[in-house]
Amino acid sequence: MTAKKSLLILLLLSGCLMMLSAADTVSIPGGTSINSVLASINGQPVTLLDVVQETAPLEQELAVMYTGERLNREIEKLRRSALEDIITRRLICKEYEAEPFQVPDQMIENMIDEHAKMLGGLTRKELELQLKQSRMTLADLKKKIRERIIVNVILIRNCDKQVVVTPKDVYEEYQKNIDRWTHPAQVEFQMIQLNRENPRSGTTAPETAEKLSSVLSAGSGEELFINLMEEYSDGPRNGFTNSVELPKLRPEFQNALKNKKSGDVVGPIETVEAIFFIRIKSLQLATPIPFEKAAPELEEQLRREAIRKKRTEYGNSLRAKALIRYYI
Predict the structure, then answer these.
(1) CA-to-CA distance for 60 and 23, rounded, in angstroms?
(2) pLDDT one-digit tens code per residue, 91-132
(3) What is the CA radius of gyration of the chain?
(4) What is the pLDDT of residues 255-268, one digit of tens each?
(5) HEC profile of 244-282
(6) Where in the chain is the domain with CATH 1.10.4030.10?
(7) What is the distance between the alpha carbons of residues 206 and 220, in angstroms, rounded to a whole number?
(8) How far apart are alpha carbons 95 and 225 in whole angstroms?
(9) Could you give the 3-state DSSP secondary structure of residue 182?
(10) Does the domain at residues 182-287 carry the CATH identifier 3.30.930.20?
């Protein structure tokens, strides 16, 4: 087994242990029984407990982000998604029964031991105690790990290995989304900010702006700009800014800086709260990322998308042959 596959299976194991340890901490709204049947697959039930064991950690995260009715909606959405995943996995396991392969017990044992170490060096006894507190047994955990391995192997065999991404595919995608593979323009500038309210100059922003326009029209060197900035600017950090992506500037600044170059002074720029003058210290134009550098990431992206599509199609084909009933 390759290191990549071993890591993938270890991540699956991590999910199993996490969902089991958190399962008994989730409340069920409305007093619904945890054993309520949500769906059946060819007569085999899928219960709320099956779903909650998988969604518990994420439900705890949702409770940090949402409350009230919004929280209930997000939990319902999460559980419905998990229910569909469970249905698909069980259908895949039925395919395994028709064409079984060996999953070595020792591999499962080794994976459990390895993850117990990652959890802080738990002994097997300590791990069993943790599972018991969640009303699970080590045998239950082994069964779930084995199921996850089976599902993953079948998906790799029937879906992932069918995906082929050619250099032509990668290049065409690069050409279609060239804007994405471009370093945006970067600008570094000095800024004079004249607040409309309580300006430190003692005169109104428009009056000061008119005066500065006259001075700057006669000369726009850096030393002159810095002197004016120190004398009149109400802005932060004495008017200096770090390099920033041009598209991230406020629209008034973006428009004012169009077709400008390093050393140019732009202004007055009118906004609701102030009037600004900007001196461009440096301006780096947008530069495309060479195809050779973008290709590896783009190829991986196309591969992931193609695998996701293949797996969805495969799951749908299994569903089409099954009798699935919902009770929610």
Answers:
(1) 10
(2) 999 999 988 999 898 988 888 888 777 777 788 888 888 777
(3) 31
(4) 888 878 888 888 78
(5) EEHHHCCHHHHHHHCCCCCCCEEEEEECCCEEEEEEEEE
(6) 3-158
(7) 20
(8) 74
(9) strand
(10) no
